[in-house]
Amino acid sequence: MPIKDDVIQFFKDRFNFEPNFLVRAPGRVNLIGEHIDYNGFGVLPMALRQSIYLAAGLQPVAINCKAMLKIDNIDRKYE
């Protein structure tokens, strides 16, 4: 099963509703030029296969309820 399907399923299991959004951000490494781009020099960034996924959803709440943000991690080695 692709990781995005795992993330969606984890979200549904944890929060009991479907996510409204699923986004992916690839990792990045600078092969040369770390921090020198601030001074106008060139850099050579490269995208990585590793990435981070984020599933988010809006859950209806009572009118007088304060907004709440719940965050959970699918990878238990980072608890």
Provide a concise account of the structure shown.
By secondary structure, the protein is of the alpha+beta class.
If helices are DSSP runs of H or I spanning 4 or more residues, what is the number of helices?
1
- Mean pLDDT score, rounded? 85
Classify the beta-strand content into a percent band: 25-35%
| Gross morphology | elongated
In helices, the fraction of residues equals: 10-25%
N-to-C order of helices and strands: HEE
Spans of at least 5 consecutive residues with low confidence: none
Please give the order of strands in the largest beta sheet: 1-2
Number of strands: 2
Radius of gyration: 18 Å
Termini Cα gap: 23 Å
Outline the biggest β-sheet.
Answer: 2 strands, antiparallel
Q: What is the count of distinct domains? A: 1
Structural class: alpha+beta
Keywords: ATP-binding, Nucleotide-binding
Domain Galactokinase N-terminal: 10-57
Organism: Romanomermis culicivorax
Protein name: Galactokinase N-terminal domain-containing protein
Question: What does the model show?
Answer:
The chain is built from 1 helix and 2 strands, in the order H-E-E. The protein is an alpha+beta fold and 79 residues long. It is elongated, with a radius of gyration of 18 Å. It has one domain. A two-stranded antiparallel ribbon has the order 1-2.
